[in-house]
Design brief:
This protein has a single domain, classed as Four Helix Bundle (Hemerythrin (Met), subunit A). Helices cover about 85% and strands about 0% of the residues. The protein contains 4 helices and no strands. α1 (about 1-30) packs parallel to α3, α2 packs parallel to α4 and α3 (about 70-95) packs antiparallel against α4. The two termini are about 25 Å apart.
């Protein structure tokens, strides 16, 4: 489970970096809090942060369930793919929102696999 904890910590650190990037973009593009609109580039940074938060809500519990009921090493591997996917998403979305698809794919599907695998493992353990 140590690998799982490390990967979760790295995913959260990546999210902190995205949050910090939003703060930096606020200054660069002159968007005073609490506003979240005004400059299209700033809005891209903001959306990456928000979209990542939305996925973290299912990623972390899914990863823990998968690790507990299936295999922690596979969960950690899927978690690393998720982190790479979010980095690709960040880079693509900031450059051009149409370039976010690859990053979305490599972060959404590992998350889905973790959730479904964790659910299946729990059901199998129940019976």
């Amino acid at each position: 489970m140590e690998l799982v904890a490390i990967v979760i910590a790295l995913a959260l650190m990546e999210y902190v970096y995205f949050s910090f990037s939003v703060g930096m973009a606020r200054g660069k593009y002159g968007i005073a809090a609490p506003a979240v609109t005004g400059d299209p580039i700033f809005e891209r940074y903001y959306r990456v942060q928000e979209n990542t938060l939305e996925l973290l809500i299912s990623f972390i519990p899914g990863m823990v369930m998968f690790a507990y009921y299936v295999r922690p090493d596979v969960a950690a591997g899927l978690g690393v793919i998720f982190i790479i996917g979010r980095a690709l998403y960040f880079k693509g979305y900031i450059a051009d929102p149409k370039k976010r698809t690859l990053g979305f794919f490599f972060s959404f599907f590992p998350c889905l696999i973790l959730l479904l695998g964790g659910l299946a493992g729990a059901i199998m353990r129940l019976f």
